[in-house]
Amino acid sequence: MLTTHPFDDDHLREECGVFGIFGHPEAAAHVALGLHALQHRGQEAAGIVSYDGTTFHNHRGLGHVEDNFGSESVIRKLKGSMAVGHVRYSTTGETLLRNVQPLFAEMEFGGLALGHNGNLTNAMALRRQLVRRGCLFQSTTDTEVIIHLIAISLYSTVEDRLIDALRQIEGAYSLVAATTDAVFGVRDPLGIRPLCLGRLDKAWILASESCALDIIGAEFVRDVEPGEIVVLSAEGIRSVKPFTKRPSRLCIFEYIYFARPDSVVEGTSVYEARKRIGSELARESQVDADVVVPVPDSGVPAAIGFAAEAGIPFELGIIRNHYVGRTFIQPTDSVRHTGVKMKHNANRATLAGKRVILVDDSIVRGTTSRKIVEMVRQAGATEVHMRISSPPTTYSCYFGIDTPEREKLLAARYDVDGMAKLIGVDSLAFISIDGLYRAVGEPGRNSAEPQFCDACFTGDYPVEPTDYINAKTDTKQLSLLAEDSH
Question: Could you say which residues bind Mg(2+) here (predicted)?
Fold first, then answer.
């Protein structure tokens, strides 16, 4: 049974990760390594589809990349010089084997494997239309909508069918797809989700983040542009830009939390951006204290920047147990509720008798923050101040991040003082929206034309969440097959 670790439910979940390669004799092995580097983007399931010139080969499973692709025998079966892979955290559809990507379908033109990072905001509306047309859905994921749109398109080439499908979908998406003669990479017109292009010898690679190129020794070439389709084939690389150019709206949470610190996203080092966020946070909300302590691991770079700017010592006052994952199976309810110590433990020697500034990346429901503050106080801290390296998360995300319903977001229900009281800190402060923008290289937020997608902080959605709006007035859901997730 796959269960979510109880103290991970207070973080925004990383969407998914995609990886594709064309023209390498060990394609599947490189995809497996790339997915390993992208594991942080999805820890519920992993899959790879390869093509050897005659046959598509597929292996998909629940759990981590290592659990599914750690054996040489599995990789050997995934023959071919082209392959696409996917790590999944479910934002739409349950964690079931039939939802594990890449999804594969036999088309009029041959096989198609498709992996998707993001979330379609009109998937349910499209799905209803497709079901009325007679399309038979096998999964509960929004990605299958794209496959059906490609299948029913009246255009002749794969590329034109793909463009036809993309013109009908709304939301956030970075896609990798494999056909019998090419690997495609696609980024949505606003560039909400990241995707980059790399090269290894004569092979071309697509990946959600640059850290996935590093692990296989590939060279980073460039970011795939918003609205761009990159086609990797025997002829080399070709770029198609079928959409009207629009201002980019990359998800700003990539810099706060989602991307790995050693990645470079849109030309900006994630690690350096997080340190600058911490520096801005210190300038905006410094308080007298003895130590700056990160909530590991995501709070570490921001805490380093905060400590340097504030002139206060940085200490690892909380130690994280790296061997408790999201899929840890809790034996009993009593054990499950013993507290956050299964994942975090206070380093009493650095906290006792100290005024502590805790730095974390976000507060979602507030449950974990409250437990950590309590743990730090029990370790002897005389004062506990919390500083958050994002503005208050007051709105739900519909673009591939698993945020709770708005009424469950702490910042949507309380002001900062109310939140501080609830989590038990002496003071609480968040970085301002302009401070966040400054930290990632902008003079501030342009409210007329925001440079990033920041809807979870501002409610300014770059794409209308059609399904969410319709759900308010239409409670009818498609009947879905229940399935054991073993």
Answer: 298, 360-361
227, 317: one domain: no
Same domain? 216 vs 98: yes
Q: Is residue 147 located within the same domain as residue 284?
A: no
Is 299 found in the same domain as 212? no
Are residues 347 and 233 part of one domain? no
pLDDT tens digits for range 296-318: 988 999 999 999 999 999 999 99
Residue 134 has pLDDT above 80, yes or no: yes
Range of the domain at 381: 273-321+339-449
Q: Determine if residue 251 is labeled as part of a ligand binding site.
A: yes
> What tokens were used for 460?
């300014």
Tell whether 360 is in a known binding site: yes
What local confidence, expressed as pLDDT, does residue 93 receive?
56
Per-residue pLDDT reduced to its tens digit, 432-448: 999 999 999 999 999 99
397 is in an annotated binding site: yes
Q: Is residue 232 part of a domain?
A: yes
- Whichever domain contains 208, its CATH number is 3.60.20.10
Residue-wise pLDDT tens digits, 210-228? 999 999 999 999 999 999 9
Q: Same structural domain for residues 284 and 427?
A: yes
Q: Which residues are catalytic?
A: 16
